[in-house]
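call fold(seq) -> tokens
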Amino acid sequence: MIPIISIVGKSDSGKTTFIEKLVPELVRRGYRIATVKHDVHGFEVDREGKDSWRHKQAGAHTVIISSPTKVALIRDVEKDLRLDEIRDKLVQDVDLILSEGYKKDVQPKIEIFRTEKHKELLCTKEDNLTAIVSDKEFDVGVSCFFLDDIKGVTDFIEKKFLKSKGEEEITLKVDGRTVPLKPFIRDFLLGSIKGMVRSLKGCEKPKKIEIQIEGE
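ret:
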């Protein structure tokens, strides 16, 4: 399952600037990163009069813009999606999701704090606060890093949230719900499925295997 980390902080704490520095360091280490920006006020991603804007105004539920180098999806939703819903429905083929905001979501959080801007932290360990990035040290039971210690924060994320790139992973979903796997079951499924697939002609060295079963 793709791990999610929310970069949170009060207004003007420097969340966007921090993400701008963190993403290149993660990418330099070979990871594929997706970012999610939370905007409670809504947004528009296309200019009035453009073809995709006209498609949406005509009543399309989903509009996809595709080019040789980029693809974008605009889709109606009935509620403000949780981060795990965004991940499970819309994100794939990345190693980590970084969100900006989502302070009320249950995902692990790294808070950006500047003494010149704020007097107290926004989150606590009960909010799943996992680290603080600040210009002062805190003793609240979580890891602390200085604002310019991008390498240290990246090391922390890599150790705590990112598995070895050579480690195999298997995810079981039943009726759209992810089912946790005990180590014995995980190893059994991995070995059995890979063994059967490798016995098929043309499938001797699979890199990714997907199985979907529908119906009773």
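The chain has a mean pLDDT of 88.
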